[in-house]
Amino acid sequence: MSAETPSAGELDLLTMIVLQRSIESCCREMSNALLRSGRAGIINTAFDFSCTFVDRAFRTVSTSVGGLPLHLNSIDLIPRAVVKKFGDGIEAGDCFANNSGYMGNTHCADLTLCSPVVVDGTLLGYAVARAHLSDIGFSTPTTYNPTAADVYQEGLILPCIRVQRDYRDIPDVLDLCKANIRVPDHFYGDYLAILAAVRVGQRRIGEICGKHGTDVFLGFMDQYQLYAERMARQAIRALPAGEVRKELLYDPIVGYPEGFPVRVRIEVDPAGELVTVDLTDNEDSLPLGINLTEAIALGACRQGVFVFLGPEVPRCTGAFDRVRILLREGAAIGLPRYPSATPSSTTDLCHMTMAAIHEGMADLGHGLGMAGSSVGIPASAGVVSGFDSSRGRYFVNQLLLGHWGGPALSGHDGWFTYGTSGSAGGLMQSSVEITERQQPLYVERMEIRPDSGGAGTWEGAPGSECVLRPLRDALRVMTNSASRVFPPRGVVGGGKGGAMCAWVENAEGERMVVPSAADVTIMPGGALISTAWGEVALATRSSALPNWCATASKRAGSQVHVPLILRGRARPGPDDRQAGDRSRGHRASTTGIGAGACRPT
User: Fold this and answer.
1) What is the rounded distance in angstroms from the CA atom of residue 211 to the CA atom of residue 600?
2) Lower CB density within 10 Å: C or N end of the chain?
3) What does the alpha-carbon distance between residue 274 and residue 154 come to, in Å, rounded to a whole number?
4) What 8-state DSSP symbol labels residue 130?
5) pLDDT per residue over 335-377, tens digit each?
6) Where are the strands (E) in 21-121, listed by range?
């Protein structure tokens, strides 16, 4: 059966829709089980997890539900690794754990469990659930460690190992995990939550087959991939033909004082109904923890392209096959070569790769493309740890506060809670109240920074300023942010967004700038201030307010766009500019956010 000519024996449309929605409902139920039972705040309040079903041919049905696109776009690598390692030795009651970037996982902080789904002796596929843990046994209390020189400086690695047999835990494996992780009770609770999601998936897929029949279910899996491929082909035919190369600069690192280059070549072939994303021209792997894993390299490219194919195209394997991705082994942005470290694979260079794809698409045609978004993780979304003297226990957890600011795209202003391109709005902001209950700190301030988005016909979303203070004990914070030297860029003439920055303030009010890869301790009376400085702008689409509604001034050698207060008049006067200067006084620092994208007229 070809992609263009359906066979006479294909399923009817109603059955197709019912089965698609049933599988998506299964994924949502898996996610609900994980959310309700997870222990880590990054799971139970920020939703940093994903669940799905992969069929026995390693094809996904829908990665648009059940979690984060970056988690799900390449999740078929997980069951592939299981089958490659265990072959015919896989049984129905087995469960396999994987957090190895060299065996199909995203990065070591994401624990992925995979179990076969067997109905009446027939293997249908695999239930897969992935969640970000609060600790994975690094030498320092973080799950990222961008300064790791090699894989041996990462945390505990589980290279696709069996953790359950006949639906029972293998105690020795879990004992090893607990002995190497700072919060073993939290780890085990999160493990059980991920396991619950997998078991829910197994059960629900079995019920779907019991209702519709195994043959119908397997037939649907084949036919749905053909449908997805047809939709992707149709969407690509509507794109403008062309080839573009983009090079962006990541903030300076050792060996690259002028910035680390991120290179992408994009070729759109409407006639061949294919998009090619070529990452082979990138630099060799770095002695840092920011190298990409295969899962992230594939996922970032797919996510970067599918933004422009429209919501009608299913996010599944059949459609993904119309995006050809070229990777080079041993590249920092490509396939890692052992023992290169990859703990920050999901953030820094991943975000830059997607930004390069978005910019490249903007160059290809009017109405395409997106502006840049934040790179890395703001300090307010770092990993916090310490000893809570009021409860007599050690704690470690990742926050997700002030993770705001989204890029604009043609026809739309930025999405306020977009965060970074890696999450694309899929992560929830941590609850302030729950954050303060889970660890001994309080959130003194978390507010929107006005006019902090990039200017343009379509404006980038604003960022935030967040101030955290320890209650009674020292608070250790680890974070990995970027876009300080090179803030997010606008496209098609749009303005750039604010640069990310952070400070530690002591009890006397003295401030120290926090480096991009930070490990800082805040003493009682001090504070962590997560904000930024840089170019900020006020843009307008109102025909009543022309371009002179924003003036420019100089601060610290860089141009800053200053909003004017018009006091009801049609044109600004000297008093209005003075009022604008005064209003700028408390808005000088702005969070690293998505840039603005400008549509030409």
Assistant:
1) 54
2) C
3) 38
4) E
5) 999 999 999 999 999 999 999 999 999 999 878 889 988 898 8
6) 49-55, 95-98, 110-119
From CA 346, how far away is CA 297, in angstroms rounded? 9
pTM of the model: 0.88
CB 534 within 8 A of CB 492: no
Question: Any idea what DSSP says for residue 335?
Answer: B
Burial classification of residue 242, based on how many CB atoms lie within 10 Å of its CB (0-12 exposed, 13-18 middle, 19 or more buried): middle
Q: How far apart are CA 6 and CA 18, in angstroms?
A: 19
**Phi and psi for 350 in degrees, rounded to 5?**
-60, -50
In sequence order, what E strands does 260-322 have?
260-269, 274-278
Closest CA to 51 of 30, 73, 76: 30
With a CB cutoff of 8 Å and minimum separation 6, the contacts of 324 are 274, 275, 276, 277
pLDDT tens per residue across span 67-123: 999 999 999 999 999 999 999 999 999 999 999 999 999 999 999 999 999 999 999
Which residues are within 8 A (CB) of 403 and not within 5 positions of it... i.e. 6 or more apart? 377, 378, 380, 381, 417, 419, 420, 423, 427, 429
How far, in Å, CA of 376 to CA of 161, rounded?
A: 30
- Rounded CA-CA distance 515/72 in Å is 32
Hey, what are 268's tokens?
């759109």
Across 442-472, b (16+ Cβ under 10 Å) vs e yields ebeebebbbbbbbbbbbbbbbbbbbbbbbee
Cis bond leading into 440, ω under 30°?
Answer: no
Whose tokens are 């689409």? That residue is 541
Greatest alpha-carbon pair distance for the chain in Å reads: 81
Task: Write the DSSP string, 375-408.
Answer: -B--GGGSEEEEEETTTTEEEEEE---S------
Mean local confidence (pLDDT), 138-158: 95
The pair phi, psi for residue 88, each rounded to 5°, is -80, 0
End-to-end CA distance of the chain: 46
